[in-house]
Structures are given as structure tokens and as C-alpha cells.
Amino acid sequence: MENRQIKILAIDDNQDNLISFKALINEAFPDARIFTALNGKQGIEHAIAEDPDVILLDIIMPDMDGFEVCTKLKADKNLCEIPVVFVTAIKDDKEHRIHALEVGAEAFLAKPIDASELTAQIRAMVKIRKANANKRNENERLTTLVNERTLLLQQELVERKRIEQELIKAKEKAEESDRLKSAFLANMSHEIRTPLNSIIGFSKLISEKNSDVEAINKMKYFIEYNSNILIKIIDDIIDISKIEAGIIDFTMESVNLTKLLADINIIHKQLIIDYKKEHLELYCHENEADIFMYTDKFRINQILSNLILNAIKYTEEGSVEYGFDIVESNIRFFVKDTGIGISEKNLKKIFDRFYKGTNHETIRGIGLGLPITMRLIEKMDGQIWVESTLGKGSQFYFTLPFIEAKISDSSEQVKSKAYGLNGKLVLVAEDDDGNFYLTKRILEEQGAKVLRAVNGIEAVEICSKQDDIDFVLMDLKMPIMDGLEATIKIRELKKDLLIVALSAHVLEEAKTSALNAGCNSFISKPVDPDKLLALM
Ligand code: ADP
Which residue's C-alpha comes closest to atom 23 of ligand 1? Predict the structure, then answer.
């Protein structure tokens, strides 16, 4: 112990006493460092600065006596562990000794100091100090350990809570999705049966002899109207499947947005009449100049039509407005209505597949319009959002990157020139009479002449005999010889003849096998006249 450099602070107002302390200590502890102070204030300052192992403290001093100094030292959390030994000339003073112990002193020495007693006391105090330091270190180590464990446990608890929450959410989602699926199937059956009933019913009635022209026209209208509803349902289901399988692709072209919005207006104004919504107005915020954007016309039309159709469906009176504005590199479309609105709770659900609001049971829908719309917009690098007040109306917005296009890139021009089919000879290979007459009419209205083959063999025969055929429309599914085989055979005879495949299969595989067989292009049934003519 003597070898270790110990630090001793002696506080005494008498210089002589301090000198004799030093001499005594030096003798017993030659390596010790000794600090002295002539009053309590200075003593405390030294204690703070030097952190001694022992303080020898006189009791009677001017200004601040030893008791007060000791009280202050013991009250300070950084100094309280330094052992204090009181040194006084008052021998056998019981009261002072008791007081000294009360204020926290560890020991007591009487003057004149006995060298061996001082040495023994200092050793004992150094031991106490060391023990205190060890205790404090151990305490600190334990506290750190406890804190670390507590933190770990807290983190574990937070993680467990998070996992628990996620499990609850996943369970709720699974239950919700199950509920939605069941609701979807029930709803779907209803949504398909309703137009089918109409189609079947009117198809029977239309063939009755006593119907007048007006009645027949009305029935035709209902058949067409309900057929379109069925097609929309099938299109929606195929679209969502394609989107989810990641096989949706976009055909980019220059699109005249001003014209597109005007066309949408005509179609939806008719819809308002069909829905008999006499107190509902449709406004298109038209641009004076034509604005051309490079985008997928069919999809833009689909997105806007979905939103406008919803706005019309869910608005009894007031207005539906739509339009767009261009802000820097983005185009922002809006569709606003004054309809039933959507509650805040339901706003989160409306983009979920098969979600259908519950406060409008009688309004038709299968809950796919908005999820398709949202996914299409996202695939086109855009965003959609909605603001709505229950009972007041909704505002849907979506943005897309605005890529300005030139008119000359446009297929719009092709249309304005009509389709240029005058005098063209078209072979339609189609076994179904209804489909054939429909296609024939579309073509003849454009001045084309039409030949028919009812199977693949006939198609090959006609092509081999006639050199003046301009196009072949080839149904892929026909009896005796299907369209694929017929195309392969025709290709062997006529390398340059234009063959367009027609098929009710809308999936990519059908298209790929048609192109592989030698078709120049592919179009899905039911045939959209505009699409067919533009393609030809
Ligand atoms: P649906 O075919 O049922 O209309 P959507 O996916 O297009 O399917 O819409 C989902 C639901 O969102 C609707 O059933 C309806 O509750 C709500 N919704 C959509 N658009 C509107 C709107 N403009 N006003 C009020 N509710 C709307």
C-alpha cells in the first residue's frame, strides 16, 4: 500500500500543524502526494481538484469549521466517498466525537498526533476508499448491465408488439379478403345474370312476328346495352388478372387529349340519358387548343371512363366535371362529382379489389373499376388520390408524366382520312353466322367487298384461286381446319397477303401463336369496329 502513490489532503488553519502532518506522512508514506489547505473553502476546492484518498480535517477553524466542511463534502456525490479523519486537540471530547461521526466522518485522531496511529488510520482509510471505489464500480457495472438488459427487453417487447400487430392485421386482411371474395361471387353472379336475362329475354321477343319497328329497335338497343355491360365485366376481370400477372402492356401513340375528352363527353352524356338522370349535368373542361400527349389512348380512355362512370353512378343530381391541367412535367386529370361521397373509413378501401360500398346496394358494380384504374395509373408512373365528403361529393385526381407529342406521330390522322377500304376485297374466314354478318357490315360500310369461308380449308382454297384479295380476316377457331393451320397453308402460297387473326382468346399466348403461324396482326373479339378498321 505504501508503494502506491496515495493522495492525502490535510485541512488545518494552523500552518505548523500542516508542516508536522507532512513530515509524519512523508516518513510513513514516502511516495504519497500531500495537499494542504488553510481553511475549509480551500480544502473543499482541493478535494474537488485532486480527489484525494484521505482527508485529515481540523475541527476548529475560522469561517467554516471542520463539521461544516465535512457536511459539505458528504453532501457532494463526487466527494462523499473520500474518507474524512477528524484531527483535534480536544482530547476525550465525547460530544465532538459524536458530532463528527454524525456529520459523516469515518475516524477520529487526537492531537498531538501519534505517528503509528496516523499511519494505521491512513492505511485503514485508503482501504475504505478502495473498497468504496470497488463497490461503486461494481454498482455502475451492474446498473449498466441492468440498463442494457432493460433496453433489450423493451426492444424485444416493442418487436413482439409489432409482430403481434402485423399478425392481427394479416388475419384481418385475410378475413376481409375472404369476405370480399364471397361478396364478390354473390355480386358477380347477380351482375352477370341481370344483363344476361335481358339479352335472352329480348332475343326471344325480337323474333316474334307481331313486333313493330319501333319495338324491335328498342329491344335491339337493350340487347346491345346489356351486351356491353357483360363485355365490360369480362374486360375488367381479364384486365385485373393481366395486371396482377404483370403481363399488361401499353401501346404508346400520339393522343389528342382535347378530342379524347370531347369523345368521352358524348358517350357519357348518352349514359346520363340512359340512366334517366335528368338533374345531372356533365361538364368537360375543354382546352381551346388541341393538346397531344404520347401515351396509351385505350388505357387513358379506360381510366377516365371508369372514374366518370363511377361519378355518374354515384351522383343523383348536380354535376360531374372533368378535365386536366399541365403542371411542369406532369399532367393532372380530375373528375369531380356532387354525389353520395365516401366516408373517411371507406376511402382506404375503395381501391381494394372487389370492394363495393354498402350504402348503395342497388347500384351496379363488381368492385374492380377503381383497383384497375389505380394499378394502370401506377404502371404508367402516375398517382391517384381522392378527396371526398359524405353526402356532398367526391374529387378523384390522377397525375401522369406529361410527354408532349407531335400531331404527325399520330394515328389520329389516319382516322380523319376515313379508312381507305373503298373497293378492297376482304376474305372473312368465320364459321359463326352472327360474327360473319357483323364483320361484313362493318367492312361494307367502308366500301369493301366481302368473301366468306366457313372453315380453314375453304379459306385456303379461296386464297389459292383468287389473286385479288387484299386482306384476310381469319377466325382462329373453326371446324375441319382451324385458323392457325389455314394461315400456315396460305402463307406457303402467298407471302405478302395481309392476314389479321380474330379470336375470342385475349391472352398473350393466343396472340403469339397467331403471329407465329404467320398472321400480320391480331384482334380480339368482340370486334371493336374502329379498332378493326384502323388496323386494316
Ligand atoms: P364498382 O364497380 O362497385 O363501382 P369501383 O372499384 O369502381 O367498383 O368502386 C368501388 C367502390 O368505391 C364503389 O362500390 C363505391 O362504393 C365507391 N365509389 C367509387 N367512386 C365513387 C364516387 N364517385 N362516389 C361515391 N362512391 C364511389
Answer: 311
